[in-house]
Amino acid sequence: MAKITAGVGSSHVPLLGVAVDQGKWQDDYFGPIFKGYEWTREWEAREKPDVVILVYNDHASAFDANIIPTFAIGCGEHYKSADEGWGPRPVPDVEGHADLAWHIAQSLILDDFDMTIINEMDVDHGLTVPLSMMFGQPEKWPVKVVPLAVNVVTYPVPSGNRCWALGEAIARAVESFPEDLNVQIWGTGGMSHQLQGPRAGLLNREWDNKFLDMLASDNDDVRHIPHIEYLRETGSEGIEMVMWLIMRGALGKSVKTLNRHYHIPCSNTAIGHIVLEPAD
Amino acid sequence: MAKITAGVGSSHVPLLGVAVDQGKWQDDYFGPIFKGYEWTREWEAREKPDVVILVYNDHASAFDANIIPTFAIGCGEHYKSADEGWGPRPVPDVEGHADLAWHIAQSLILDDFDMTIINEMDVDHGLTVPLSMMFGQPEKWPVKVVPLAVNVVTYPVPSGNRCWALGEAIARAVESFPEDLNVQIWGTGGMSHQLQGPRAGLLNREWDNKFLDMLASDNDDVRHIPHIEYLRETGSEGIEMVMWLIMRGALGKSVKTLNRHYHIPCSNTAIGHIVLEPAD
Amino acid sequence: MTQETPKQNIHEYLAELDDIPGTRIYTAARARKGYWINQFAMSLMKAENRERFKADERAYLDEWNISEEAKQALLKRDYNTLLDLGGNVYFLSKLFSADGLPFAEAVSTMTDMTWPEYRQMMLDGGRSPIGNRSIKGGY
Amino acid sequence: MTQETPKQNIHEYLAELDDIPGTRIYTAARARKGYWINQFAMSLMKAENRERFKADERAYLDEWNISEEAKQALLKRDYNTLLDLGGNVYFLSKLFSADGLPFAEAVSTMTDMTWPEYRQMMLDGGRSPIGNRSIKGGY
Ligand SMILES: [Fe+3]
Ligand SMILES: [Fe+3]
Fold it and tell me: Where is the Extradiol ring-cleavage dioxygenase class III enzyme subunit B domain (chains A, B) (predicted)?
């Protein structure tokens, strides 16, 4: 039986991909960030998950303005790194887990989630940067990936409550997959940042840490935070944190925090990550 | 305030489009079918709806195998008739109602429906045949259309219960649109038919009429019919009738039946239609 | 709030779909298997592709990531085999159109009837569901 | 079952989004208005389009269904005006890349700071939310 054994929430700042790809990850600017991920990288090397359900958002790479799926699940065999305007990142292709992905997609639709299924797409920094943070620069990614792309760009994006409920449904789906698989779920994006307008550069250390506290707790108050609170407190792009709720919803009522790290800034963004284990 | 004033369920058989386009609609084969729609055509001419929310499915025209949205709502300004392999139907372009469509899309997402928004697409017989049945051959369609494309091809398709709930949410959305608009909602497809395999040609007059009875009733038992019942009783393509439930769900608890017609066969298909008015 | 439809396990749900006589429900498993058959068929929506296909069917098919078995079935218009290989009728209908074949006539080739026989069955009220609902149940 | 988040009316929801200082939330209204600005920007993901654009920006822009105002803003790289006209930063970032401009530097041009000032603000902990949360509330 497949099982979700852990959840990771993590920022997915494009500049971190640049730091890895250009070997700058030990310099003064990036050193403290990568140091914060060190424990997690070692933990992942020990855990050896078979599959990661990777919740992220497409940043106008695979989807143009024409089509905006709220929840799109990648059911393909592999995905190439997207050219975001300066050439694709020099990272391995991402291998899908089509069997598990289709199983999850089917289960979710039966569970009244209105999924969009996608077979072929390129994946951008939202998906590949977290892989680099967790696994460094391997010849080949050590996990298969089920990409789950969430619209967090055009409003309304899905509610926190809906994201949490989707996570719960994903956990049910994984548990009904017959093959033995060690599955992790990652929620990516955030933390506080604003990339547009005169208010650009807003960061909110206090709120971000309160959010991490809420994720680590045994109650589900975090699912009821309204969009406007993310926007006011954490900048227009801080809304990406709703994707962490899909991860958290998949872990059940109680969780144990294995690691937690927060650093300001990386480019325009507050970097944070948290590693959680179901504790029910 | 906009209001849903009526709902129509109707088959959308491609051959009916051919009959209209080639002027065969009075011959022995098609005569009885078009006669059954006569009252409804006159009623539509009197009702003069401003907008039709037209629930249909794409038959591998706008969407290829790569992307499969469960619920896609058309938010564009206009749509062309698709070339389904023998040239586009010679019908007017379909004019969208982008203001209302975006309002509904936003409201639905806020209401935890995981919509896919689509701006540009061609629309196939699923959408244009019902327009021809209701409005004949005008120079310009007398209504604007909000297309709502439902996946009823790749399994699982959305449950009857989810479709009904979507209809309820659409009704709430329409009622919160500030402009005065006479809005109809149409659910199309069906009735019994099977287009594939050795069982092709299955029709089920009794079941189809029971389904029409259930739609016309004041209880919502019809939303709980499982997919397997549609498939066993009405053929593999009879599942399209789940789209009628979106229409029915939008009309509220009680309805008044204004017209009802059933005829066998049209090509591979049992033709039926029903005109309902909210009666709460 | 109204009563919820009881949720079903996906494995039970899919098993039921396989219990219908003479029918291949287009499940994920079929959609995956037939992906390139269907994408090939979809390509025939463009007039220039239809022409290239008609000029040399085999050469056009060889441009696609399709098994030899599927290519043979496409060349023979063996639609039941194509359904087994994951083809879906709405995609395959682009091939009906390319051949100039009416939809119902193409559908009739999947049954054990000739086109005139099939057409007559439909005029007579269609195929009865009796005995055609369930393989296991035989009803 | 857990408690439901109270559902909000879409008009209230959208009104709140307009109450954030120095921020244009990418709502449906903006997405509609800026559709072709964003599709133009997306086109710059292809190397051949970037070259054609660089060779003659005005001529390339004239191929798109974009208002003169938006074209001028694109030519001037006036990103705040482009946000007003419905541009979205993830789409517009394809233009940053075409210009070889780092993302953060491009973002800084939307503020009242120079790039070195903006960079220093970020190193110092970023822009404070205090007074930046609500126009009406002023908090
Ligand atoms: Fe992001
Ligand atoms: Fe249909």
Answer: 9-271
Query: Angle at the Cα of C90 (from C84 to C96), degrees rounded to 5?
Result: 90
| Assigned token pair, A112 | 């009244």
Residues of chain B above pLDDT 90, percent: 97
Question: How many Å apart are CA A188 and CA B153, to the nearest integer?
Answer: 32
Residues making up chain B, counted from first to last: 280
Nearest CA in chain A to C8: A110
C-beta of residue B148 within 8 angstroms of C-beta of residue B73: yes
Query: Cα–Cα distance between A2 and A183 in angstroms, integer?
Result: 7
Say yes or no to pLDDT of C1 above 60: no
Q: Can you tell me the mean pLDDT for A199-208? A: 98
CB-based contact C44:C95 (threshold 8 Å): yes
Q: What is the pLDDT of residue C3?
A: 57
CATH code assigned at C103: 1.10.700.10
Instruction: Using a CB–CB cutoff of 8 Å, tell me whether D49 touches chain A.
Output: no
Residue D3's pLDDT is: 56
Residue A280 in this model has a pLDDT that exceeds 80: no
Asked if residue C59 belongs to a domain, the reply is: yes
**CB B50, CB B145: distance < 8 Å:** no
Beta-carbon separation of A155 and B69 below 8 A: no
Name the domain count of chain C. Answer: 1
Region C46-60 average pLDDT: 95
What is the C-alpha to C-alpha distance for residues C95 and B20, in angstroms, rounded to an integer?
24
SS3 content of chain D, % helix, strand, coil (to 5): 55, 0, 45
Q: Is B193 a catalytic residue?
A: yes
Please tell me the distance between residue B104's alpha carbon and the centre of ligand 2 in angstroms. Answer: 24
- For domain B2-227+239-270, give the fold: Protocatechuate 4,5-dioxygenase; Chain B (3.40.830)
Would you place residue A84 in the very low, low, confident or very high pLDDT band (cuts 50, 70, 90)? confident
Considering only the C-alpha atoms of chain A, give the largest distance between any 2 of them, rounded to a whole number of Å. 52
Instruction: Give D-chain residues touching B176 at CB under 8 angstroms.
Output: 9-11
* Shortest CA distance from A165: residue in chain B: B112
> CA D120, CA D127: separation in Å to the nearest integer?
11
Two tokens, residue C42: 């979809």
pLDDT value at residue A86: 81
Chains that touch C (3 or more CB pairs under 8 A): A, B
Say if residue B272's pLDDT is above 90.
Answer: yes
pLDDT tens digits along D3-31: 567 778 899 999 999 999 999 999 999 99
Instruction: Give the mean pLDDT of chain A.
Output: 97
Is C30 exposed, middle or buried, given 0-12, 13-18 or 19+ CB atoms closer than 10 A?
Answer: buried
With a CB-CB cutoff of 8 Å, which residues 82-121 of chain D face chain A?
83, 88-91, 93-94, 96-98, 103-104, 107-108, 110-112, 118, 121
Question: Are B161 and B241 a contacting pair, CB within 8 Å?
Answer: no
Report H helices in B91-238: 98-110, 125-135, 160-175, 205-216, 227-234
Task: Decide if A199 contacts D19 (C-beta within 8 A).
Answer: no
Range of the domain at D49: 23-123
The 8-class DSSP code of residue C137 comes to T
Neighbours of C112 (CB within 10 A): 9
Average pLDDT over chain D reads 95
Residue D93 is assigned to a structural domain of this protein:
yes
Which value does ipTM take for this structure?
A: 0.96
Neighbours of chain B (3+ CB pairs under 8 A): A, C, D
On chain A, the residues whose CB falls within 8 A of the CB of D83 are 196-197
Q: Kindly state the percentage of chain A with pLDDT values over 90.
A: 97
C91 contacts in chain B (CB < 8 Å): 60, 65
Reported as a single tens digit per residue, the pLDDT across C58-93 is 999 999 999 999 999 999 999 999 999 999 999 999
Which pLDDT tens digit goes with each residue over B104-135? 999 999 999 999 999 999 999 999 999 999 99
Is C62 part of any domain? yes
